[in-house]
Specification:
Helix content: 10-25%
Order of helices and strands: HHEEHEE
Number of helices: 3
CATH topology of one domain: Ubiquitin-like (UB roll)
Shape: elongated
Oligomer: single chain
Strand content: 15-25%
Keywords: 2Fe-2S, Iron, Iron-sulfur, Metal-binding, Molybdenum
Radius of gyration: 24 Å
InterPro entries: 2Fe-2S_ferredoxin-like_sf (IPR036010), 2Fe-2S_ferredoxin-type (IPR001041), 2Fe2S_fd_BS (IPR006058), Ald_Oxase/xanthine_DH-like (IPR016208), Beta-grasp_dom_sf (IPR012675)
CATH superfamily of one domain: Beta-grasp domain
Strand order of the largest sheet: 1-2
Protein name: 2Fe-2S ferredoxin-type domain-containing protein
GO molecular function, one term: 2 iron, 2 sulfur cluster binding
Organism: Trichomonascus ciferrii
CATH class of one domain: Alpha Beta
Number of strands: 4
Length: 92
């Protein structure tokens, strides 16, 4: 004989799937990609989705970042990604 099912589970309505806008929440979206490169603010309007960070860095005239194996395994194209912590007043 199966154990009794708690009433709280029986009385629950069937969960409804979320609509896309509900799942994503209420966010403002932009076609501008903004970041800092060596402390200088960069804002790209409608960036190429197939472009790479390496392509952009090289287009600014910086040559320290290299392309090695084209797979990310060798580390030649490694860059530091950080964010600003306003509480600590430093990059993290």
């Amino acid at each position: 004989m199966a154990p009794p099912v708690p009433l709280s589970l029986v009385d629950q309505p069937e969960p409804q799937p979320l609509k896309l806008h509900q799942a994503l929440g209420h966010h403002n979206y932009s076609n501008v990609f903004t970041f800092y490169l060596n402390g200088v603010k960069q804002s790209l309007l409608n960036p190429n989705p197939q472009g790479t960070l390496l392509d952009y860095i090289r287009s600014t005239g910086l040559t320290g970042t290299k392309l090695g194996c084209s797979e990310g395994g060798c580390g030649a194209c490694t860059v530091v990604v950080a964010s600003w912590d306003p509480v600590e007043n430093k990059e993290v």
